[in-house]
Amino acid sequence: MIDAPLTAVSFAPLAVALPIFGAALAFILRRRRRSQRVVTIGILVITLSLETWMLSQVWGGETYSVTLGGWAPPFGISMVVDGFSAFMLVVSSIVSLAVLLYATGQGMADGDESGPVSIFHPAYLILVAGVSNAFLAGDLFNLYVGFEILLTASYVLMTLGGTTARIRAGTTYVVVSVASSMLFLIAIGMIYAATGTVNMADLAVKLSEISPGTAMVLHVMLLVAFGIKAAVFPLSFWLPDSYPTAPAPVTAVFAGLLTKVGVYAIIRTETLLFPGNQLSNALMVVAGLTMLIGILGAVAQTDFKRMLSFTLTSHIGFLIFGVAVGNQLGLGATVFYVAHHIVVQTSLFLVAGLIERRAGTSSIERLGSLAKLSPLLSVLYFIPAMNLGGIPPFSGFLGKLGLIQGGAQLGTPLAWVLIGVSLLTSLLTLLAVARVWNRAFWRKAEDATDPDPLLLVGAGEIRGATYDIVAQEPASRYSDRGDTALLPSGMLAMTAALVLVGVALTVFAGPLFEFSDQVAGQLLERNNYIEAVLGTSGGLGR
Questions:
Q1: Rounded CA gap, 53 and 311, in Å?
Q2: Are the C-beta atoms of 6 and 111 separated by less than 8 Å?
Q3: 144-202 tens-digit pLDDT
Q4: DSSP state, 207?
């Protein structure tokens, strides 16, 4: 049964089905690496094209529901396509495709015949399917299924290679993820017991009919479950130790997407199921602590990837800030900022992979002379770093300005405190990224602590036939390996492409902010969503 007109939105289930089908085909082709790559990339290109078409159908503010299996809502499985879900699908698929092409370039350069890459492509497509299912889910159980699909795939991707560090980090990740999933599943069971439904449009009507105390318990349980997945303080302890150990492409796609699915779930449930900002003060406190604790952790790091992991958790606080403010201005800025954060944070993790490949380390203390060794790499770091730091006129500045304006419009004392915390966080973010810029790119390699010979020879800091502090091998081995070998064109091209997407968010900020403001209005005005799924609003407004 299809409730939408026969347009792109009618094919919304294909955004989930295509990656699953592609994963099965990629697994069958696991002994044919080239064919496997072609299938995986082709499936993602087709999926992105479909999602872009879907976004064009809802750009004007429409909301559509696609009901599967011939069961009418609220009993059947509903997939809902509105501006928010379609926008998140497109942004996530752009990032997923860029990271996949980056990983393909890395694999082709390294010769991956002996590596565990045969399972990478199927697991990667399963991850994409889980993310898409979560964004389209019209009921809580299907949202849970989406989380479990992407988390199962992420377990596999995180432990690729089977090193001790990855297995240890993967264990922590699995334990935390299973705990949050159990809490989410218990909350779903309690919600069904209290209301007789898990359809979110139906819940928007029925949750208002149960006792306020019961509703508050269910509200808090969902927030805690999603807060773990989104890595908000104090539930973010697992992330900085888990993400940096994974391969560079895996870390990049995790940083860009996984926590944002948790944020998406928070935004959707807070606006649709629990309107009225009952927990706005608590969310403001959580947002402020997430920003501050995260960025203080980032400033204290000496490893580039761990620093990025802490900035990732810190800037989740900005997104929770917008949810806590709860007005249209703040929510609109949040929708824009989540797209900015997905693109920019992923770009920086891809740059981290290039730096580690070029310099042999991600330790800030051991890096130097990268501006001389690779000017292009310097540019690829500088642009998203300044964007993350919120330097005008980049999208990071525009998104933060919108959040601050939303907080100022609310005007409560706690909102003003949070504005101050957000400004301090932005300054400390700029300090953290500037420290990497100064030490890794402009400091001479010979001044670094125990620099890799690749840095010293490549920068021309030493001469002679032998330099064997680390490798006990002739210097010619290092000097013969230029940027072409160390930084494959496929990896550079995809990093540059994603950096340009981040710049495009600035260039097209005007129409994107208009769209984000429209999406915020849709989120706050629940009738359209409920009518699209149930055919009636139930008499509800905001």
A1: 33
A2: no
A3: 999 999 988 988 888 776 667 777 777 788 888 888 999 999 999 999 999 999 999 99
A4: G
* Residue 186 confidence (pLDDT): 95
Report how far residue 403's alpha carbon sits from residue 390's, in angstroms, rounded to the nearest whole number: 12
Please indicate, yes or no, whether the overall pTM of this predicted structure exceeds 0.70: yes
CA atoms within 13 A on the CB side of 435: 17
Residue 385: CB atoms within 10 Å: 24
Q: Structure tokens of 8?
A: 């792109």
Q: List the one residue out of 471, 472, 473, 451 whose CA is nearest residue 461.
A: 451
User: How does residue 359 score in pLDDT terms, banded at 50, 70 and 90?
Assistant: confident
Mean pLDDT on 304-312: 91
Backbone angles phi, psi at 237, to 5 degrees: -60, -25
Where do we find the tokens 């800037």? Answer: 315
Q: Please provide the DSSP assignment of 103-131 as one string.
A: HHHHHHHHT-TTSTHHHHHHHHHHHHHHH
Cα–Cα dist 316/312, whole Å: 7
Single-letter amino acid, residue 355? I
> What radius of gyration, in Å, describes the C-alpha atoms of the chain?
23
Residues 460, 465, 468, 469, CA torsion sign? negative
pLDDT tens digits, one per residue of 7-36: 667 888 999 999 999 999 999 988 888 888
Cis check for the bond before 375: say yes or no (omega within 30 of 0). no
Q: How many helices (H) and strands (E) does the chain have?
A: 24, 2
Better pLDDT: 24 or 539: 24
pLDDT confidence bin for 538, thresholds 50/70/90: low
Would you state the structure tokens that stand for residue 45, as one six-digit string?
């290109």
Read off the tokens for 444: 């001479």
Interatomic CA distance for residues 129 and 143, integer angstroms: 12
Contacts 24+ apart (CB under 8 A), 67-74: 67/1, 67/2, 67/3, 68/1, 68/13, 69/1, 70/1, 71/1, 72/1, 73/138, 73/199, 73/201, 73/202, 73/533, 73/534, 74/139, 74/197, 74/199, 74/201, 74/202, 74/533, 74/534
Q: Which two tokens stand for residue 501?
A: 């997407």
Of 273, 283, 289, 295, nearest to 322 by C-alpha is: 283
Would you say how long the chain is, in residues?
542
* Cα 269 to Cα 12, 43, 63, 207, 541, distances in angstroms: 21, 31, 17, 12, 15
* pLDDT recorded at residue 284: 94
Measured CA to CA, the distance from residue 320 to residue 267 in angstroms comes to: 9
Residue 478 has pLDDT above 80, yes or no: no
DSSP character at residue 367 = -
N-terminal to C-terminal alpha carbon distance within the chain: 29
Q: Are 266 and 335 in contact (CB under 8 A)?
A: no
- Model pLDDT, residue 472: 34
Both structure tokens of 291: 């920003």
> Residue 462: what pLDDT?
39
